[in-house]
Design goal:
The protein is mainly alpha-helical. The protein has helices at about 15-25, 30-60, 70-120, 125-130, 130-175, 175-235.
Length: about 240
């Protein structure tokens, strides 16, 4: 008998990391899509700010001898600069606010579905695994889903937007330089992906060992508390469940 066998009524959960993350992403697709769009807006505003400054400096330099035309020349670049700074602040704060709203809900959703999935496992599986370890795995998984999703949105996505906008701007200034930047970025991402795949096995072993250790500590603490209560019940001759 397979101790990891689950009931046919068990809720279906993907087995691959990306599919597993996408499964919970779909539950809050609207919120997550809004956060992605806001983060793209904040990153684009940040990387385009130096471009607006360059336009202001260039406009002032071109009409330096005709001071009466300076304001008319730099009016649009100056407005663009103010708009980009304002947009960066608004987009970043709005994205952080949406994250505060959706993050607890997403973690609760992951915990709820994992607990429902665990409830359909066989009795032998639940008997042969520490309850503390199983609870720790559910808690760590829900936390990891949040961390992975927000790392992609708030760390990886801004870098991707910055590189994309930078390559486009460099294309108009120097095509070889833009191609070099593109090749360097692709090479860096490829090496990082290969190294991450190699470290994946070690990460799984580390997470499993940590969960088992925490589970043993929690179960040992619970067993000690139960033994203490039972011993106290015997000594005071309490009736009912505390008496032997």
């Amino acid at each position: 008998m397979d101790e990891t066998r689950t009931s046919p009524q068990a809720p279906a959960l993907p087995g691959e990391p990306f599919s597993f993350l996408l499964h919970f992403f779909r539950h809050y697709y609207g919120w997550c899509a809004l956060v992605v769009l806001l983060e793209i807006g904040a990153s684009a505003s940040s990387i385009l700010t130096p471009y607006a400054i360059g336009q202001i400096v260039g406009g002032v330099t071109d009409v330096l001898t005709e001071r009466e035309q300076i304001f008319a020349t730099v009016a649009f670049p100056l407005g663009l600069y103010l708009l980009l700074n304002f947009g960066e602040v608004i987009f970043s704060r709005a994205g952080a606010s949406c994250r505060i709203i959706v993050a607890p809900r997403l973690r609760a959703q992951v915990t709820s579905e994992l607990y429902a999935y665990l409830q359909h496992h066989s009795h032998r599986f639940l008997s042969n695994n520490f309850a503390g370890a199983l609870a720790s795995r559910i808690s760590e998984t829900s936390t990891s889903v949040n961390m992975t999703l927000w790392t992609l949105v708030f760390d990886f996505l801004p870098i991707a937007v910055t590189l994309t906008v930078s390559i486009i701007l460099l294309w108009y200034a120097s095509i070889p330089l833009s191609l070099f930047t593109l090749v360097w970025a692709l090479l860096y991402l490829s090496i990082s992906y290969v190294l991450a795949r190699r470290c994946r096995t070690l990460a799984h072993k580390s997470a499993e060992a940590r969960s088992v250790t925490i589970g043993k500590v929690v179960d040992a603490d619970q067993s000690g508390q139960c033994a203490t209560i039972r011993h106290a019940g015997i000594r005071t001759r309490l009736p009912g469940k505390f008496s032997e």
